[in-house]
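Reviewer 2 asked us to include a model.

Predict the structure of this chain.
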Amino acid sequence: MAMVPTIHTFLRYMRSMWWPTVFAFKPWFHWKYSGVVIPTLWVTALAMATFGIMFDTPDEIGTFSLLAYLFFGGTWLYACGFFITSDWLRNVAREIQSASTEGRYTALARFCLYITTPFLTMTSVLIACVLFTHRAEQQHRLSTFSGVLAPADDPTIYCKPIEGAQGIVVFGASAIQFASMPATILRVGKEDMITMDRLEGGGISISAKIYSEDGRIVTKVLKNAFDVNRNNIFKEERPDDSTLIVIDQHDQRVLYIRYRNKYEIQFDARLWYPELGLFVCHGVASTKYLYKLYGEIL
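Predicted model (structure tokens):
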């Protein structure tokens, strides 16, 4: 019986403070057409998620996915508000108040069950929808032929401390560090084919043009933003947001880029330019060939 004063205190609080405050918002959730608001929000969220996997550009995918999350959240908020201000839940509370002292324990437990079960159900549905949308958006984004490489959190391969180092490019088992940006890694004639630069938000970027032996563009990378010519490759692979792999029509890997961290990029490629012919940019030999006056082999 020691719990009786606590129950009485709780009921008095519910009667004097909680329900008047909650039901002050009832007109917001219970009006003439309120029954169609939840389905409308839900369908709109599903439509935004569908649009997100119909477009190919990263900006469009991100925008529609964000709208889907917002509409899913709006559906959850409106459904919770609709439920908590419902007359049915208020009638259950009145049953507790009118029950005998002995029956209030059972009535209060039933009331808590009636509140927590719908909330947990709606929250579970919300989480499932958000996770499903995120997964679908991620898979679609990694299957498109354009995008932006994001930095991973890989450890730095070469830990040799070099004063003033701005960035490192890894070629196979070797690398070049650069003390100043922007930096040209490979120049053909008067045109820079592979360059490095710093990003305004921090970190480094790489730009490159990859051609096939017939002179057609395969991939163009501009400050970590890439476009792959889908008509001149066999397939593209994106294991994650930090990696781009391109396989040519001869089933050879012509490009591997991994943005290992904000200060290190791994770049392996099969390059072809009329002035140079075929050049495999991978390993120590290519690193020495690409070495520039402002670079230092690690």
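Residues 167-297 form one domain. The CA atoms of residues 121 and 242 lie 36 Å apart. We have added this to the supplementary material.
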